[in-house]
Amino acid sequence: MSRILGSERTLSTRPESNSSMTKDLPHIRWALSSSGNLASILAGLFLLISLLPVVQLLSREWITFANEYTHVDEIFFAVCAARGLVSGDVPIAGCHDNKAPLIYALYQLLELGGSRYSLGGIKLAGAVSMITAVALVAFVAQRIGGKRAAVIGAALALQTFAVNAELLAFKTEVVGTIFMLAGAGYLLRWIHSSNLTALFGGGALFGMAVMTKQTFAFGAFAACLWLLGEPVRPPGRACADRLLRCLVFAAGVALPSAGFLALFWLRGEALDFLASVFLHAIAYGTGGAPLSSSERAWKVGWFLHQFGLVYPLTILFSVALTQWLQPLLARQGRPDRRRPDIGLLLALAIAMAVVPIVSRQYFLSHLLPAWLLMVVPAAVSVSAWLERPSADAGPTVESLRVVGAVGLLIAVLLAVDSWYLNGDVKKRLAGRQHVLDEASRVPGGRGCYGYVLGIRPEFYFFNGILPSSDVLYPAALAGAGAAPRPVDLQQHGPPLARFHSVVQVHAAKRLLAQFALTPPQYVLLVDRWARAPQSDAVSDVAVVRDHVAAHCKLMRKIDGKEYQAGLLFECGGSPAGRGVRDPLPSAGP
Predict the structure, then answer these.
(1) I want to staple 587 with a disulfide (CB 3.0 to 4.6 A). Which of 7, 115, 509, 579 is the partner?
(2) Cα(525)–Cα(135) distance, rounded to whole angstroms?
């Protein structure tokens, strides 16, 4: 109260001011309550306006684009999950893709709860994952900054999802961020209780995020560094205690990976698991020549441009980061250690923002984890500013009106921008290849087995065809045209290249064994992956070429872009396979 009415010295040396202070008390209380109510109203309006473009995008996904996938990765995950269900591999080791196995297990649960290849079910799961992520952002913000921070955090999180409709997909980035936010919640609990059980549980949730997508290991590493830097309470054996907390957390992180490895080892699929989680993920970024200086500059420009899509969040996060570092920047010692909770979220956000910078392949969705983690410190910073009662250190009713009006105007502009970018049907249809080319349609193929040499999961999904093998990633097969060669892996060391060769031999044997149980009735050879550009063979992958020559005949040639052009064969495989029963009903697109 002394900060509002004047300095302590004024109150003690001028007793006559007591009467004016008494007269002013109702006005001061009204101003404070009015500013608080106005701030809450503005936060609520901010949330409502931020919600509108997301509702608009969801309605278009469910109505206008009900028969189109939101993101092609969803189709591949569903196809891999279906293969695991019909072969009894629950969870499946990874389809020799470059993802960790947890996302496939979630898709298997989705298909078990509904039907196979259901676009409606996938879109519903995407909406649920988005709502869960926003709720967790609000929960963590509330734990740190109170209810108003939760409302502002939810609004900022919704704005990130409204940037592009593809961010609403049921993908690894959203699911992994959910686990990471839940893990951060456990670490916040550890801050207040120093309970090692909470620390281990938080690590296990971070480990689940890593088993959704490997790049979440950046966040786990940042959390471990944060634990090492936090002071010991109470002071004592600082080094030993810091090391202990980091080891407990690391044990939790390792638990999901060790569990999956043990399970797949018992099933004889440890090599498939290790290839998908480590080898193919590394090989994914080895193709092509090293980036030139101009290409690197372009990449940095792309990165900064994407952050400009969420410029209010970027600005507010920068303010929060500066406030946390202010004592250090002012040469007053280390940053304020009384707010370790803010330090944790800052560290996680920065770590996940590093991922697209160091990755060779980068897409807009790769920034979503960083954005959602940036929301929490940004929301807490805004909420703390709104809650300062002093007129000389915080907002008055008048300043709240001005700043609130500007903030709401920005929210409206962001909503309109989202509608403009994502609402035009022509842009959506023109910017995406058709879900399935007419030449690739197989009437009566639903429930049959087939195989695609290449990355065309639409062929399985929209024809209702089940994969004849879980070797779906071309890089797993020697001779695939666009696959990384062992020489591309030499930069990581010859042992990795030798491991790649071992995996390719194993994958070829696995493919033949699975073809014997579930022979494909249709085989699609996509030109980009089936052979090298200068090759005139049907395929440079020997096992597939020999199977096609012995069991198949050409149906038609498919023209189009490099990802579409290929050869479609009809083979003598039994539509139902040999002794394998499909346990799920099919769902039409």
Answers:
(1) 115
(2) 44
Q: Which residues are within 8 A (CB) of 490 and not within 5 positions of it... i.e. 6 or more apart? A: 497
What values do phi and psi take at 379, rounded to 5?
-65, -40
CA-based radius of gyration for the chain:
28
Closest alpha carbon to 558 in 568, 573, 546 = 568
Angle formed by the axes of helices 494-517 and 542-551, to 10°? 20
One-letter amino acid of 136: L
Q: What's this model's pTM, rounded to 2 decimal places?
A: 0.87
- DSSP designation for 451: E
179-215 burial, b at 16+ Cβ within 10 Å, e below that, comes to bbbbbbbbbbbbbeeeeeebbbbbbbbbbbbbbbbbb
Q: Render pLDDT for 406-447 as a digit per residue (tens, 0 to 9).
A: 677 777 777 777 776 666 655 565 445 567 777 888 887 888
Contact 524, 451 (CB under 8 A): yes
Gap between the Cα atoms of 486 and 490, Å rounded: 7
Report the alpha-carbon distance of residue 380 to residue 112 in Å, rounded: 40
What is the token pair recorded at 79?
Answer: 């196809």
E strand or H helix at 12, and its extent?
A: helix 8-13
Backbone angles phi, psi at 416, to 5 degrees: -65, -40
Q: Lowest-pLDDT range, 155-159, 324-328, 456-460, 571-575? A: 571-575
